[in-house]
Amino acid sequence: MGYELRRDNPATDADTSKVLDLPSNLPLTQVNTTFSDSPTNISGLPINNLRFVTRNEWGAQPPTEPLGKLKHPVPYVIISHTATEFCDTQSTCTFRVRFAQVFHMESRNCSDIAYNFLIGGDAYAYIGRGWDHVGAHAYGYNSRSIGISFIGTYNTVAPSDHQMNALQQLIEIGVKSGKIAADYKLLGHRQVSKTPSPGDALYNIITTWPHWSPTL
């Protein structure tokens, strides 16, 4: 297991997580997205079946202090990985998210889980700080971005098409709801911090997407 750490404010800002194996069984909420004219995404997978796991469903603790508000639409989407073990079931992914929050809050003195959203190997979108609150995932960019972290370590192993489909749907929802700018820049965590995140295998995929930008 491993973890990544980058800070804006050492007292409140981190993007690190660490996981343990402990089963959990919480219900999921399905959200049918209706924001696209196309029935499939760039991987040929359907775009109307993204599932969200709410904070209540994954057992989130409340923030220890009020979170800053994002000014919408944000110009950046920043992709990271948690640099931990993978998860491929509802129970393991749910626990990894819950433990990430505990680690961020208790070991890194963050007020909440660092990420806005996480994507598990189950291809569900786990709500962290959500669309409206400033994250703690990327030095200097937290107030201008939505941070999305893939649970696992993607140095040599690439996410599945279903996980990438979930990412595309999530971003699309953000754009259509006015949370993310239509001309947003898609960045890898390594482009804004000294880190190998989101791992070579994942980074090599997002660099082929239309909104990826080699410049900040």
UniProtKB/TrEMBL annotation:
Keyword Amino-acid biosynthesis among UniProt keywords: no
InterPro entries: Amidase/PGRP_sf, Amidase_domain, PGRP, PGRP_domain_met/bac
Pfam family, one: Amidase_2
Ranges of residues in domain N-acetylmuramoyl-L-alanine amidase: 62-199
SMART domains registered for this protein in UniProt: Ami_2, PGRP
Chain ranges of the Peptidoglycan recognition protein family domain: 50-193
Record keywords, A-Z: Immunity, Innate immunity
Superkingdom classification of source: Eukaryota
PANTHER family: PEPTIDOGLYCAN RECOGNITION PROTEIN (PTHR11022), PEPTIDOGLYCAN-RECOGNITION PROTEIN LC-RELATED (PTHR11022:SF41)
Family recorded in the similarity comment: Belongs to the N-acetylmuramoyl-L-alanine amidase 2 family.
The protein's name: Peptidoglycan recognition protein isoform X2
Designated gene of the protein: LOC107216706
